[in-house]
Amino acid sequence: MKKWVEEMQLLCKPDKLEWLDGSETEKQRLIKEAVKKGELVELNQKKIPGCYLHRSAPNDVSRTENLTFICTSRKEDTTPLANWMAPKEAYKKLGEIFEGAMKGRTMYVVPFIMGIPKSKFSKVCVQLTDSVYVALNIRILARMGKIAWKELGKSNNFTRGLHSVADLNENRKFICHFPEDNAIWSVGSGYGGNALLGKKCLALRIASHQARKEGWMAEHMMLIGVESPEGKITYIAGAFPSQCGKTNLAMLKPPESMKGWRVWTVGDDIAWMRVGSDGRLYAVNAEAGFFGVAPGTSYKTNPNAMETLKKNSIFTNVLLKEDGTVWWEGMDGVPSKGTDWQGNPWTPDSGKPGAQPNSRFTAPASQCPSISPEWENPKGVPISAILFGGRRAKLAPLVYEAFNWQHGTFIGATMASETTAAATGQVGIVRRDPMAMLPFFGYRTTNYFRHWIEMGKKIRTQPKIFHVNWFKTDGGQTFLWPGFRENMRVLKWIVERCSGKADAEKTPIGFMPKKGSIDLIGLEMPDSAMKKLLLVDKNAWLQETIEQEEFFKELGSGMPKEILEEHAALKRRLKG
Ligand code: OXD
Ligand code: MN
């Protein structure tokens, strides 16, 4: 460990080296330093104690998938959907950028645990970074400091993360993963998913690779416990692409009319799952905090998130109000003026957003009013249902259920969604996003599907698998389903399918709710809208199967025969 840190120190040549212990005194000192350097702006400590604002470079506001690489010795071990670089070339290329990159700066040694300490669900990472903002974010998102050294003990089995914002030059920005070395090198970006190496880089890309080798699953999923009026809790995991409302669903507050129903938050972004000794699938939240999308978050859409981020939170690229609090588009009470995310004066008439569309809040999960009492259970929570969902204006109905695990794997494998602002590129284009893992596969996608099929065989009590779509439109701009808290109605049907209570009918794409089996009491929902929401347009689905086929071609060789069987069976059912 010491040797590696010394080597990296020699390479990056920081003026100072600081080993972080995770204490409160240290946190206060780091905050002071960050405020002095202008990396953080102190917010109104009376109104939102412990909260700070960070403004990133204007060209560094989202994950840069085009500059993200998986570096395995053999190209065929990575997915054709990701970028590949040979490890030797990557170490050389990035080594040249890291060379002396920390001159005049401090290198922080940040040890942390992803997953739950002292459990099978625990991985230690040591990230070296020259960003105090990054160090303070990790402190919220993971269990950071002495606790990680304790967890590691004498072992050398930890992820080696090296990160420098360097000069933020677009041409010298790379996020490289070395699954064979359990290492991550990221340079040229201070943005969340690129720089907080525990999150997407470790907990998904590196972990998915490890999970396959070790027989578990690392998934881009939120985790909730849904409590029924009788007090029974059903745990559900859900994979949705970035900015499709995962955090809102994870913190959902049911509508007033659904008395006795309650949602407990276990996690909002990353689930690690293992088969327990009883043959069920157990999951934990790999993180300790939320890195949520700010715009659109309000007391109306997500009251639990709003309560969570009232204190000890870091806001990135939001609008600063005159009273030293923050605002973003979609939050109530539009301020008459403020300072926008780039530090310029702003008024509602400025003609540009006050907050960057991918602006974020970083907040401790423990502060969430709906946090599940089980969220730190070292055994995890037993999963009864898995949801897949995307943003689809057309085709995908509100909800349907897979016939079985293999069919569910096929549904996840062929998932698609319209692109959002969480990554750079055009917004609103439909792209295939298997299991919402497209930007996060640490290895070949066809092998990942095989791993799902294999895991299914090991799970004796398999979770039911569903596909949901909150975003179907009437053909224009209007959503047919109200979404947000009303999604509880779909969750209720799912929970009742798990307990065998709710009715369904068989369709070519899966089981769908029988008329009247989704609780609509207290909701004004015309029959005609519900009909459209639950429509299976056979011709459109046949077209979809053609597009699925094209996508399979992009994935290259090695598609499991089970997935191809499911594809053929779907076509048969649609034609039948
Ligand atoms: C995230 C993402 O930040 O998926 O969670 O982009
Ligand atoms: Mn995510």
Question: Can you describe this structure in just a few lines?
Answer:
The protein has 576 residues and is α+β, with helices and mostly antiparallel strands. Helices cover 28% and strands 24% of the residues.
Keywords:
single chain; 576 residues; alpha+beta; Phosphoenolpyruvate Carboxykinase, domain 1; Phosphoenolpyruvate Carboxykinase, domain 3; Phosphoenolpyruvate Carboxykinase, domain 2; 3 domains; 9-stranded mixed sheet; 31 strands; globular; binds oxalic acid; binds manganese (II) ion
Q: Please tally the β strands and state the result.
A: 31
> What is the count of DSSP helices, taking H or I runs of 4+ residues?
15
Ligand roster: oxalic acid, manganese (II) ion
Task: Provide the CATH architecture of the largest domain.
Answer: Alpha-Beta Complex
Low-confidence stretches: none
Annotated CATH topology of the largest domain: Phosphoenolpyruvate Carboxykinase, domain 3
Q: Sheet bearing the most strands, described?
A: 9 strands, mixed
Number of domains: 3
Average pLDDT for all residues: 96
What structural category characterises the helix and strand content?
alpha+beta
**What is the rounded distance between the termini?**
62 Å
- Give me the Rg, rounded: 23 Å
User: Helicity range of the residues?
Assistant: 25-40%
What share of residues are in beta strands?
15-25%
List the helices and strands and how they pair.
Blueprint: H1 2-12, E1 16-19, H2 24-37, E2 41-42, E3 52-54, E4 68-70, E5 83-84, H3 87-98, E6 106-115, E7 122-129, H4 132-141, E8 143-144, H5 146-152, E9 159-164, E10 174-178, E11 183-187, H6 192-195, H7 198-214, E12 217-219, E13 221-227, E14 233-239, H8 246-250, E15 262-267, E16 271-275, E17 281-285, E18 289-293, H9 303-308, E19 314-316, E20 319-321, E21 326-327, E22 338-339, E23 345-346, E24 360-364, E25 381-389, E26 399-401, H10 405-413, E27 416-418, E28 430-432, H11 445-458, E29 464-468, H12 488-498, E30 504-507, E31 510-513, H13 527-533, H14 538-554, H15 561-575
Parallel strand pairs: 1-6, 3-19, 4-5, 4-10, 7-9, 9-11, 14-25, 25-29
Antiparallel strand pairs: 2-3, 6-7, 6-8, 10-11, 12-16, 13-14, 13-15, 16-17, 17-25, 18-24, 19-24, 20-21, 20-22, 22-23, 26-29, 27-28, 30-31
The structure holds oxalic acid and manganese (II) ion.
Residues 63, 192-193, 242, 269, 291, 422 line the site of oxalic acid.
